Amino acid sequence: MVTVVSEVEATRGSVKPFVNFNAKHDAEVLRKAMKGIGTDEDAVLMLLAARSNAQRQEIKAAYKKAFGKDLVKELRSELGGKLEDLIVALMYPTILYDAHELHKAIKGVGTEDEVLVEILASRTCDEIKDINKAYKKEYGSKLEKDIMGDTSGHYQKLLVILAQGNREEGVDESRVEKDAKELYAAGEEKFGTDEDKFINILGKRSAEHLRKVFDAYKKIAGCDIEESIKEECTGNLEALLVAVVKCAKSVPAYFAESVRDSMRRAGTDDETLIRIMVSRSERDMLDVRAMYKKKYGESLYSTIQEDTDGDYQKALLYLCGGND
After folding, report:
1. DSSP SS3 for 68
2. Which residue from 51, 38, 76, 37 is spatially nearest to 315, judged by alpha carbons?
3. 3-state SS, residue 101
4. Which of 47, 130, 170, 281 has its CB surrounded by the most CB atoms within 10 Å?
């Protein structure tokens, strides 16, 4: 019984490594599904959504070895639309996927700020450091430099702080009250807002520390820090500060809300839906699902069923991993 518990604690993802994994066999199944006239999309999505990211990398190598072809290129040419976007996203190594999404957000036409906000507010310090390395290796430039070239003002300043992945660790009890008072003085109490105070405290303290600061803040200000930020700040800076606060409180709750938003807008925001389902599938999808059910009174699974269709829907439901 104990071993079951520790395994469950080890990963809160919905996608687990496939037990009797054989990369060569999987490569052959995929080849067969894509060869000839038409593609067996079902076979492709059922196989790839049921393998861990590390296993997908092995399948990629086995495919190249057996057939001399790049599996991702083959998938791109055989699949189309949203299913293609989802399957290709699954094929990126996890950290490289985050780096790729950031690069695309910065280097595309205009800046996709919601992507910068989501990734930089929600990833752990270790993940951010790995993303920086992967970004530099893949794109030959520094993430920080690219962010600076594409953004400005206080928003840029906070993005750059978050992109360092250098949050402090633990709780400094002696500073909790002081931080809360400084935030209050910088916002609610003042004519005009001292954004730097918000940026430095919210950008540098640990999540555990910030949770205590938020509790102390509520006692002083009589309202939640998110409400104060919404009153004091606007635009991208507001969005980023609010995301940082939400992630400090609970990353799964933040993603439950984001994934809900992606489907409950007029028209589904498939880019966001895909990014969240792919990036949380091996991190904390079980917790995202639990938060979703608690917050909205229905399962994430049922919302995906209502909001999407076809093979794309099937693949998303596989990643979701179950109906709560």
Report:
1. coil
2. 51
3. helix
4. 281
- Amino acid making up residue 198: F
Q: Number of C-alpha atoms within 13 angstroms, CB side, residue 35? A: 8
Q: Indicate the range of 4-18, 65-79, 287-301 predicted with least confidence.
A: 4-18
- Looking up tokens 């993303």 gives 131
Q: How far apart are CA 34 and CA 86, in angstroms?
A: 17
The single-letter code of the amino acid at 146 is D
**Rounded Cα–Cα distance for residues 194 and 156 (Å):** 16
Which distant-in-sequence residues (6+ apart) come within 8 Å of 145 by Cβ? Answer: none
In angstroms, the CA 229 to CA 306 distance is 34
Q: Single out the residue of 13, 101, 90 nearest to residue 46, CA to CA.
A: 90
175-194 per-position pLDDT tens digit: 999 999 999 998 876 656 78
For residue 49, the one-letter residue type is A
pTM over 0.90: yes
Taking residue 222's Cβ as centre, other Cβ atoms within 10 Å add up to 10
As a whole number of angstroms, the distance between CA 311 and CA 75 comes to 14
Query: Across residues 271-283, what is the average pLDDT?
Result: 97
Q: How many CB atoms lie within 10 A of CB 270?
A: 18
| C-alpha torsion angle, residues 277, 282, 286, 287 (rounded to 10) | -90
Mean pLDDT of the chain: 93
- Going by C-alpha positions, the residue among 5, 48, 100 that lies closest to residue 311 is 48
Q: How many CB atoms lie within 10 A of CB 174?
A: 7
